[in-house]
Amino acid sequence: xxxxxxxxxxxxxxxxxxxxxxxxxxxxxxxxxxxxxxxxxxxxxxxxxxxxxxxxxxxxxxxxxxxxxxxxxxxxxxxxxxxxxxxxxxxxxxxxxxxxxxxxxxxxxxxxxxxxxxxxxxxxxxxxxxxxxxxxxxxxxxxxxxxxxxxxxxxxxxxxxxxxxxxxxxxxxxxxxxxxxxxxxxxxxxxxxxxxxxxxxxxxxxxxxxxxxxxxxxxxxxxxxxxxxxxxxxxxxxxxxxxxxxxxxxxxxxxxxxxxxxxxxxxxxxxxxxxxxxxxxxxxxxxxxxxxxxxxxxxxxxxxxxxxxxxxxxxxxxxxxxxxxxxxxxxxxxxxxxxxxxxxxxxxxxxxxxxxxxxxxxxxxxxxxxxxxxxxxxxxxxxxxxxxxxxxxxxxxxxxxxxxxxxxxxxxxxxxxxxxxxxxxxxxxxxxxxxxxxxxxxxxxxxxxxxxxxxxxxxxxxxxxxxxxxxxxxxxxxxxxxxxxxxxxxxxxxxxxxxxxx
Length: 502
Fold this sequence. Notes:
The structure is a single chain. By secondary structure, this protein is α+β, with helices and mostly antiparallel strands. Strands 1, 2, 3, 5, 13, 14 and 15 form a seven-stranded mixed β-sheet that branches. Strand 1 (3-11) and strand 2 form a beta hairpin. Helix 1 (49-66) crosses helix 6 (159-168), helix 11 runs antiparallel to helix 13 (363-387) and helix 12 (315-325) crosses helix 13. The longest helix is centred in the C-terminal third of the chain and has 38 residues, at 464-501. The protein is globular. 54% of the residues are buried.
């Protein structure tokens, strides 16, 4: 008997994940492909977009082989972002994709566009000031720095839209992703800003705009032969992974905050009004009629992974030692800015700092300090969102980091927030499968029926005074070290430039 199901695939920073899900939301099969991004220079983070398609093909074939009687009704796609992948007229990439806010190369383009257009006008049209998260300056960087690649570029993709294009031939981009190609999207009119597109992005063709769950097209014969997905199967437009993760746990209603534990930490608060603050990102929502205030730490899982490799340890061992270290990490405070920082300080030249070290401290203390540093970063973001007018009534946690209770508890203790953790926390691939199911079902499924909340993390009020004091030190540590850190960042960039020219 054939089993009606949907496929969801997400292209992440460190891996691509795929799931095959039945009509009730039960995961029938799942698969993962790990990969690495390229960091050719300090502040540069890239990835070959062709890897995304190769991994999708491999994942699709593995999922279908695991469930031979699967009848695929639709395909959902998702991916990290905002990324800038430029392709030629035939859809072939002209250079590696430039990744989201962790890539900080376009500083001079941010400054030039801001001077050209003015902060007030940029904010009025696009919702946010220009930062390393904005896609527009990265497009301009390619035009400025790589004229040969720019001369061949005709199309703009992100991971989800790239997969949709390879599957269907459609050239589309969802509104949420488009709103992060700042300042080229008009957030109130929900359309491209033609004059600014012509000024900064021509001769790229504007992708047609869709909402995340809209059908982009149908699987072509060529894509069917490669993937094993039947020709004619519907494919949605998809969106950026953090927003798809919010969908996967039902954290996209007004008053919801999605907290994503991954390679980076990401926060998405949903409302109906367009809130503007220079410290955060204002975007369109995944669905029509919603707006988001979003933020992100440049490192979280990336930082804990770095410590794991540095100390040649495994995660269970580090977690046990961090728990033994106790709240406050025996007098340490860490700034988690090891890849610069996105929100709310918007400082690509920030760097990691560990204060309070003595010869008595061990790796468990360092690991505890790293977990607390990400929690302090979350607190800083949530406070900034609320100061901007965001009403946050419900917090839902998602992502690979939710598998460990200690990290969740530390975040709740540091922030004072209650977190809901659903049964399925694999994130964006599951959300993509859900969106695909809703696009073709006669009666659209409800995510609260697919994915129930099974755990609630409650903060320990006894720890509030300790973490209030630690948060104050965290803020003062950045302010007190920024001058020296920026000098060091400049030296790092100069050393990289010398090495590149040698």
